[in-house]
Design goal:
By secondary structure, this protein is an alpha+beta fold. The longest helix is centred in the C-terminal third of the chain and has 22 residues.
């Protein structure tokens, strides 16, 4: 089983989620190496066969893993159910995450949201890796 470092996996997920229309992240099923590809800008040498699904898996983005607005709805249902309708309205417009975070800050729930989101991302990435036969090397302990 190929293994990927969790930190590399998280970086690639964040890359793919930051601009899904312009960037894609891949994992080599042979080496566990992570590659990030953007339209027009290539900072490193990329394998010429990066689009070969037998050798590279495209990492999902937050939409693929259902970690967008629905995640916010799940959080609000559990933590701030009285704000659910307001949050649904927020996500009907542009700039939703900014306004959502402002609401959470006003409710004193911003730190809870960040912890909830980090946990949901990690869980989803681990499940995706397990489904695709990829092992994860755990994070290294932070040292001096």
């Amino acid at each position: 089983m190929v293994r990927v470092r969790y930190d590399d996996l998280l970086f690639a997920y964040e890359f793919a989620s930051s601009s899904p229309e312009a960037g894609v992240a891949y994992i080599s099923v042979e080496t566990g190496e992570v590659y990030c590809k953007t339209d027009g800008v290539e900072e490193e040498e990329l394998p010429p066969d990066l689009d070969d699904p037998d050798r590279y898996l495209a990492l999902p983005d937050k939409s693929d893993l259902d970690l967008g607005a629905r995640l916010a709805y799940r959080f609000v249902l559990g933590e701030l159910p009285h704000r659910y309708d307001q949050v649904r309205e927020i996500f009907r417009h542009r700039g939703a995450y900014h306004r959502f975070k402002q609401l959470l800050a006003s409710e004193g729930a911003l730190e809870k949201w960040f912890a909830f989101e980090v946990n949901a991302i990690e869980t989803a990435l681990r499940e995706w890796c397990a489904e695709n036969g990829i092992g994860i090397e755990e994070r290294r302990a932070e040292g001096p």
